[in-house]
Amino acid sequence: MGNDGIPRRRLLQAGVTLTAGGLALAACGGGGANTSPGTTTKSKGGKPKHGGKLRIGTAFGGPTDTLDPGKAVSDADFYRAGALFDALCYYDPTFNVVNALATSMEPNSTATVWTVKLRSGVKWHDGKPLTSADVVYTLKRNAKLQLVGTVATAFIDFKNLKATDPLTVSIPLTLPQAQFNQYLAAPLYIVQEGATDFSHPIGTGAFEFVSWTPGQTSLFKKNPDYFVSGQPYVDELQITTIADATSRLNAVLAGQVDAGDQLTYQAAKQYRSSSSVQIVVSPPGSFIPFTMACDTPPFHDVRVRQAFRLLADRPALLNVAQEGFGEIGNDLAGKGLVDYDTGLAQHAQDVGRAKSLLKAAGKSGLTVTLNTSTVSPGMLEAATAFAQQAKAADVNVVLNNIPAADFYGAKYLHYPFGMSGWTAQPVEGFMAGALAKGAPFNETHWHNTKFDDVYLSACGALDPSKRQTLLDDAQKMLWDDGGYIIWGFTPYLDAMRNNVHYPPPTPANDLCGGVFREFWLA
Fold first, then answer.
1. Which residues contact 54 (CB under 8 A, 6 or more apart)?
2. Which of 299, 310, 339 is closest to 430 using CA atoms?
3. How many domains does the chain have?
4. What contacts 319, CB < 8 A, 6 or more positions away?
5. Which residues form the domain of 362?
6. pTM here?
7. Could you report the per-residue pLDDT of 163-199, keeping only the tens digit for each?
8. What is the pLDDT of residues 307-327, one digit of tens each?
9. 10 found inside a domain
10. Do 232 and 331 fall into the same domain?
């Protein structure tokens, strides 16, 4: 859900043009929710069985598909990369970091040097052992070519980066980063030293390459020497592009594929009580906020921004735009994830207070244009509903429905009043991408030196309680004065055959994060 061609998370993690331009500095961070009744929110139980072919249907794929994990952009690219390669670490469903190829990742006392210890005994698909030289090569390659992970590599002092022994890497930084391991999490996949040709990729992942046709289908087989004992459970993995959402669901229902991503809200609601298919719902994490440019009239006046937040009937927006899936937001990213401030009161609709604020700002009877689109599911519906709600305070919201292909074009980042789409973002990661000095996606034109100082202090704080206090202070500034109306969060909605067993869904991506090594077939 919420895909806008190249989702905002992908741009931040991949470090493509926009992110690379913001490296000066998007400083730190990385890439118990309520869901609708009658939906599946936990992995199916039972003892895993081995064997069979897992067939995945995905919305994504085209002539620009790649098997180079450093050049991955679409979800399908990342599905394949995650099957073939491994990262030093991963995020769990609440965005805590879990080690993978690394057994430990520790900062020094000033958070300026990180020491990474690698797992022994890991083999590449060609039988060679994984070594620290592979990690150093990957980091240097991705930085030089501006590939996945350049938000992380932007802070590495490459002159002093070194492999101190075959299983240890010393990573010096140019700025203190207490949570630098978040940057190194998947999808920064490690490639073999010297690798340049990925037409037949060699990884350490749970699956080995067999064949693929770009934009159509790819086939992988089980890696018998995978370092996670007993995994993968299936013998083969096939990923096929089925662009149309209805066709993808029908392929699951007909048994042509075992699982399909990017289910629509309407289809999920229709089939959530059906015995013919599993509707798998992740914790809510993605969001399609309204954005107010804090330096542009009328939103340069904080009273107008506060008033517009009070115009939003959040439960109604959730029902209209998302068929009731997900949960309401409180104008801050990262709800349900690490570092989120749960102590702030919930913003709720208060038309009387909104009218009072607008009157004090000299903006009674205000007319504004809201730039919206169909680029993300529920975006236009949310805009239409908000425009109706605003009438109660004598605010006239005129919708400018921009074609999906143009919405994130040259005018994006310049909308006085607009919308956007984000995948799940932990607090620090969202601040890095959207709010801190040098942020590549500063949609709300938020420029606040006090906020920047607090944020950067949080980045270097090794003490968890001090760091949380600083992040809470930063979130309070945004809750009071910021330019986002984050009214709700949406889950990923996937369809799976009844014999498919799967790991816990994650707000980070469809299909339980694409961790196909943990899927099994009854």
1. 234, 236, 237, 238, 258, 259, 500, 516, 519, 521
2. 339
3. 3
4. none
5. 290-489
6. 0.89
7. 999 999 999 999 999 999 988 987 899 999 999 999 9
8. 999 999 999 999 999 999 999
9. no
10. no
